[in-house]
Amino acid sequence: MTDIKSIKREVADELNYKANSEDGVHFLSGTSAAPEDSYYGFVVTGSGTAIDSITYIENYKQTGDITAITLVQGGYYPIPGRFSTITLSAGDMILLKKRN
Questions:
Q1: In the chain, what are the domain boundaries?
Q2: pTM score > 0.70 for this model?
Q3: Could you give the C-alpha distances from 92 to 20, 37, 38, 66, 75, in angstroms and in order?
């Protein structure tokens, strides 16, 4: 048996994404708030998607203002410390549920 010496970050992210995504997703579009749950990240599926508000579960892990950034369509955004709900001002995204 061979020991693993290192792993590319992209591969680790992909494995982590696949392991966590089995816990479910929520498709969010429009300006309604997402149902409360434990989400670990999201994938932006619409152009012009913008976040109006977000409620972090472990907010001490966050700095800066996520509502001020330009989200890229097709981008995967992991959120350290998870979030419980999010509201968009435009666009749509897939929310990734965290295993409890």
A1: 24-97
A2: yes
A3: 20, 18, 18, 16, 12
